[in-house]
Amino acid sequence: MTEYIVKESNLTEFFQAVSQNRTLLSPVGQGEKCRLEPTTPDKIKLDFANTHLSPKASFFPQTERLLAFHKDKSLPNSNVYQDLGDKAQDCVLFGLRPCDAKGLTVANKVFQNDRFVDPYWKGKYEKALKIGLACLKPSPQCFCAAVGGSPFGEQGLDVLAYVKEGGLGLKTLTEAGEALIKSTKAESASLSNEIQKLEQEAYGLQKAEKDSYKVITERDLMEVYNDPHWPFTAENCLNCGVCTFFCPTCHCFDIQDEQSEKGGVRMRNWDTCMSSLFTLHASGHNPRPTKVERVRQRFMHKLKYIPIKQDGVFGCTGCGRCVVMCPVNIDIRDVAAKMCRPTQTAKV
To answer: What pTM value is reported for the model?
Structure first.
């Protein structure tokens, strides 16, 4: 829509303006442990690769209290569940990397679609303004280009920002983003050529070729499913689930009811398809009895099933967190390369 610059000397004032009457969430902390948390305008970080955890917990907490009841019959509504869902507050998220913003759009289509709407997700997601921060120097594990993304990607953002000499460059992407930036003292500017140049330079720093995994979506589903490499791919996996907890698009959860003598609460907790309990039936039957089936499910879901359901959009955004965090060095890029090859030439 419109482009602006914010001088370095005005950054604190700028962040004060965008967070007026809103909670400000931005990366805080040091080094690899940088995390997205509520903060103040004077503590904004601009020099980080990416947050240690993805931003999905801001909208989909790892543990969330949904409902509760009490057993005191002398009080109203005894033994009746009451809504405990977090009351959504207006907030602004600054510093979302484009891969993480895109990840939120993938999850959003799961929690809000033409079949149902999750009110707990909806309230938080729609009250958040999202200001992304482009990647000028992608990390070695980053591969957003391969899955259709960009270091300057705009999906899911209201404003895209990037660090430039003397301050910040801004590009508004939605009407809400335009209104937000107009409420500050940001100055209008012409940045299109600079943005295009920086984006191409950032692409060049990634080892992944643009859209190189698209061939996976074009291959026959059962051919990919029955590829002979899966037992070898799964061989080292511990089924620890760290990949799913760090992933910005993983959205599986379990519901637990806990109670005491005084009452009870219904909780929603993150779950993982890497666990043998995830698909265990009450009968004792498990349709994914070994780690081969579980590992295959994870990668098929990210790179094959979600694209089928979301018009070609991958369930992987190329953030590289699973690459870094896997304790046995299973690299999704290696798995994707095998999934790209026709079955008869696939090597293990």
So the answer is: 0.93
